[in-house]
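Priority: low. Protein: Delta-aminolevulinic acid dehydratase. Input follows.
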Amino acid sequence: MQLINRPRRLRSSEAIRRMVREHHVRIEDLIYPMFVMFGEQKKLPISSMPGVHNYSLDEYLLALKEVVAAGIPAVLLFGIPEEKDEVGTGAYDHHGIIQEAVRLTKLHYPNLYVITDVCLCEYTDHGHCGVIQEGRVLNDPTLKLLAQTAVSHAEAGADMVAPSDMMDGRVAAIREALDDAGYSHIPIMSYSAKFASAFYGPFREAAGSTPQFGDRRTYQMDPPNGNEAMLETALDIEEGADIIIVKPALAYGDITYRTKEQFGLPIAAYNVSGEYAMVKAAAEKGWIDEKRVVMESLVSMKRAGADLIITYHALDAARWIKEDES
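Result:
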């Protein structure tokens, strides 16, 4: 019997495979998360995230040279304050660490797109993402502080703000505050589908944001709930979100797919710290081919519907993409 359809014809060489490839990870798809802190000449390695550091501002500027040289278009900044308190004052301080990092970035690299994480957990002494009263996270009082934080980031020169707290109504509160302050042009990239995941452990080491009591399950979503993610996303879009984040990425490809199919907005998949740490650990053991696993993982996010990828692998991925194109 003669076979008419032979899919292997289009797999016979690298040239034809590249020509008919359905999805691509491009350098311009990548957003690189970075951790900044006060001090000088500090580049502190994060033990659970090999290759990732907490940077003092001078070392942060040196690290940005590599980011810009790699062609990565955007960074997502997380701040480590010198002091913490009950209401996360450092998050919205005019001279807070994020505010100073944004000013410094725009002074030296005005074309680098700067996105700022808007949350209180790195700045509160209890490690929760909002105001606490009698052991409970208060939603509405937290909104005012988040809005104040977002405006302070915009004043410093941030190009985009990314609320990650998961309080009800925070996108609307931030949108209104930005508009009232004259920043209607600043987009919001909302952590709309953010799950109470076990994959966040290394980040909490990096940011010093582990809750001092309880957990975040009363505001982050329960992992089994896909329909709830669609509800959260719909609410955030109604409130003014411009880009939707799905977090984590690898275990939630179905959420990325559903979000893209249902809403059509740009989506950023957050390839989180635990996902990064697992790959790094296995690669160090020689159990996997790091480049192939990373690139296969990233392209899976694009295939699921992500337009952007927030990943700690960004520097390596950008290098590999350039090598493959040369």
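The first helix runs from residue 14 to 19. The chain has a mean pLDDT of 94.
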